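Justification of resources, computational component.

The compute hours requested in this renewal are based largely on the per-chain cost of generating structure records like the one below. Each record pairs the submitted sequence with a full structure-token output. That output is archived, and it is also reused by downstream analysis tasks.
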Amino acid sequence: MAVHRVAVVVLDGVTPLDLAIPTQVFSPRPETPYELTMCALSGQVTTTGGFKLLVDAGLDQVRTADTVIVPGVDPPLRPVPPAVLDTLREARGRGRRVVSICTGAFALAAAGVLDGLHATTHWQYIDDLEQRFPAVAVDRDVLYVDEGEVLTSAGACCGIDLCLHIVRRDLGAVAANRIARGLVAAPHRDGGQAQYVPAPVAVAGDTSLAGTRAWALERLAEPLSIGELARHARMSQRSFMRHFTEETGTTPLQWLVNARVNAARELLEATDQSIDQVAQDCGLGSAANLRLHFRRVLHTTPTAYRRTFTRRPPADAALVPAAPAGEGAGPTA
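The structure output for this chain reads:
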């Protein structure tokens, strides 16, 4: 991947955590192509914490960016300077990727960038976004929304999920997981589709099933059942299903499918294993079943994914053609 310039638009009242997330995820590393620039209308910005930031670059630097990110501000309904709105409109008009973290969605909405699209923001301000910007289709129970070249996240820490999702789109699962490990963050929390990805919000509180999820991740190649997971958690199946959904925002079977697809992505990027072997090692059974889930989740094939995210010629590239849509065995967990 060529050099990818990321511009973070820093507004007065910026939330320090929201600002720190993209600067950490997209900070320059030898193995990633990102160049990060913080831009502001003026050289000094006041944060919600009351301290001041010196920002060297002006809004003119946004014009050279490939991705433009607006972190959240407080209060989110404060007027956005017209020059900032013009800059965001121009960036989107030039086909640049535009991203908001938390309440940064209000700036994107005010610029008209979100009109006709799905978007989200912090749960405390979701009603305000919906009422003030009726042209935006507001999604309430998601971690982030990916509409292709316009992406928005929910509350602050969901910005980590969104930024890692962007890295995964750009560079693949291995690179995203490496950054996640450095941040001591969950490597992958998402929903199901490639161009429009809603992810359920996990309910805060009891994390009693974390051990069972970790146990399952070590045994993805095995035919795990709900009964086995419930027995490991020492719960009835009914209680297990309820607690699991409350903690993760998804069902155990869907969680397993997502975990297996993510494991397959890493194997495709990092090894020369055949598609059949990858399918077996991640618990999806067969190449046909792996292709089926890749089409449903990522809108691509395992072979095409491998070709995109590795420079190494795969051992089975000439042996395993992409299956036509609808071909293959039925889905399994």
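Confidence is low (pLDDT under 50) at residues 191-197, 202-206, 312-333. The chain has two domains: 4-183, 203-333.
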